[in-house]
Each structure stands twice: as C-alpha cells, then as structure tokens.
Amino acid sequence: MNMREFSGVVDLSSHTLRYYEKIGLLKNVQRNASGHRVYTQKDLDWVSFIKRLKETGMPLENILQYAALREKGVTTTSQRQQLLEQHQQRLKIHIQQQQQHLLALEEKIHLYKDGKVR
C-alpha cells in the first residue's frame, strides 16, 4: 500500500504517519524503487494497535516506551505486559469514573423529564 492508501485505511494523515516515523514509533517502512513508502500488513497491524492505545488514553511517551521494548524482542515481553497491565488498570478506573458521570447525568435528565427541576 502506498502512503495515500495506507493513510485512508488507518484513518491517519500522511503528516501523522511521517511524524510517527520521525519519532521512531513506526520503523522500517519499506520503500519502492522510486523511494515512495510501501506499507505492509505488519505496518497496518502495528499502527492499528498504536491507535487503540492512543484512543484508550495511553500517553505517547508510554507508547514510545512500549515500541522500544517491542523492538528489543522477546526478552522484553514481561515488561511490555506490565506496561499494558498498568494501562489496563488506568483505563478501568477511567471507565468507572465515566460510568459514574453518565449515571449522574441520567439522574439529572430524569429530574427534568419529571418536571422536578425548573
């Protein structure tokens, strides 16, 4: 896949993809004879995972840390697992807080519907 196609599939701008390369988050992107980037399924899987981490609130610094460990190979699996478990715990707390906010909002809306708030 070329840059335009890949950008569309992963729903990230070409600027963002180049930035990810610049900071070392996206490495070893293949290039064709003309020097244009050629993305593979491996790149797609990795960028999809990066997006999931970002969308769940993992800071870019932690994603970079995870990527650096990933690049070192299987000797870092326990460290990567620990990073993901820490993020999982933060995410669970965030979801719980959001559920509490939603409940409070629903209660307030219910008061309006019942005419108890003016």
UniProtKB/TrEMBL annotation:
Keywords of this entry: DNA-binding
CDD domains reported for this sequence: HTH_YyaN (cd01109)
InterPro entries hit by this protein: DNA-bd_dom_put_sf, MerR-type_HTH_dom, MerR_fam
Domain HTH merR-type residue range list: 1-69
GO MF term list: DNA binding; DNA-binding transcription factor activity
TM regions (residue ranges): none
Pfam families with a match to the protein in the record: MerR_1
Protein name: MerR family transcriptional regulator
Organism of origin: Vibrio hepatarius
